[in-house]
Write a structure and sequence with these properties.
Layout (H helix, E strand, L loop, with lengths): L1 E6 L14 E2 L2 E2 H12 L4 E5 L3 H9 L19 H14 L6 E5 L8 H13 L4 E7 L8 E3 L5 E3 L16 E3 L3 E5 H5 L9 E5 L11 H16 L1
Parallel strand pairs: 1-4, 1-5, 6-11
Antiparallel strand pairs: 2-3, 5-10, 6-9, 6-10, 7-8
Helix pairs in contact: 1-4
C-alpha cells in the first residue's frame, strides 16, 4: 500500500496558521493535497495534525484525517522521521501495512504530480531508503561569509578566496517538498540526508522555502508567474 502523509501541526510560530493560510486564493495545504491526488501514486492520502481546524480543512480538500497526532510529536522539536513513523505504525496497528510512504509537506505549493511519480519510480528502481528533490545553491557555498561579533566579515572557507567559482564543487540543498521512503526506513529512524538516499534534481525556479512573510510574498509572485506560463 502506498501512503502519503502530510504533516501539518497547528503551532506554526513565524507564520501563524501557515498550513491553512490562503495562498493564491486557496488554503496552503490544498496545493499539496491536489498534487498527491493528481499523481495517481497513492492508495491513501492522510494529514497528520494535532489541530481540529487543520483537520477539517484537509478533509474539505480531499485528504483523510484518521487520527489526531499526539502532543509529544506536535511541538517545535518534533522531527519529520518520527512523525511519519507514527503514521506508518498507526496504520499497521489498524490492519494496513504501507510499504511505500511519502512525506509530503503541507507548505509545498510548487510540488508537482509528475515529480511525485518520478520519485516513486526511482525508489522502486534503486536500492535506497529514500528519494527526495534537491536543487543547487545559487551561489558557491565555499565563498560564503559570516558576520563576526565585532560587526566585520570573515569567510567560512578562506582557502577558497582565490578559487574561481567555476572550479568549486556544486552544492545542493533539500527542496523542502517531499520525501519518498520505504516503510522500514521510516520505522527504523534512518536519516534522510545520508548515502541511503537518492536525489531528484529540480530547477531552482521551482523551489522556494516559505519560512517568513517575505518568503510567502515571493512564493506567491513566483507561483503566479509559473501558473501564467
Amino acid at each position: 500500500m502506498r501512503l502519503a502523509v502530510i504533516p501539518a501541526r497547528g503551532g506554526s510560530k513565524r507564520i501563524p496558521r501557515k498550513n491553512i493560510r490562503p495562498f493564491c486564493g486557496r488554503p496552503m495545504i490544498a496545493w499539496s493535497i491536489d498534487a498527491a491526488r493528481g499523481s495517481g501514486c497513492f492508495d491513501k492520502i492522510i494529514v497528520s495534525t494535532d489541530d481540529e481546524e487543520i483537520a477539517a480543512v484537509a478533509r474539505q480538500c480531499g485528504a483523510e484525517t484518521p487520527f489526531m497526532r499526539p502532543a509529544e510529536l506536535s511541538d517545535d522539536h518534533a522531527g519529520t522521521v518520527p512523525v511519519i513513523a507514527h503514521a506508518v505504525e498507526w496504520h499497521r496497528q489498524n490492519g494496513v501495512a504501507p510499504d511505500r510512504v511519502c512525506c509530503l509537506y503541507a507548505t509545498a505549493p510548487f510540488v508537482q504530480a509528475e515529480d511525485l511519480r518520478t520519485g516513486l519510480k526511482m525508489l522502486e528502481a534503486e536500492d535506497c531508503a529514500y528519494v527526495f528533490p534537491v536543487t543547487s545553491y545559487p551561489f558557491p557555498i565555499q565563498r560564503a561569509v559570516r558576520l563576526t561579533g565585532e560587526g566585520r566579515v570573515e569567510m567560512f572557507s578562506p582557502e577558497h578566496f582565490y578559487t574561481r567559482s567555476q572550479d568549486l564543487e556544486e552544492a545542493y540543498h533539500d527542496a523542502g517538498q517531499f520525501y519518498w521512503g520505504r516503510a522500514g526506513a521510516w520505522l527504523g529512524g534512518e536519516p534522510i540526508f545520508s548515502p541511503g538516499s537518492i536525489p531528484l534534481i529540480l530547477p531552482s525556479y521551482r523551489v522556494q522555502d516559505i519560512d517568513t512573510l517575505e518568503d510567502w510574498k515571493r512564493a506567491e509572485w513566483l507561483f503566479q508567474a509559473l501558473q501564467a506560463r
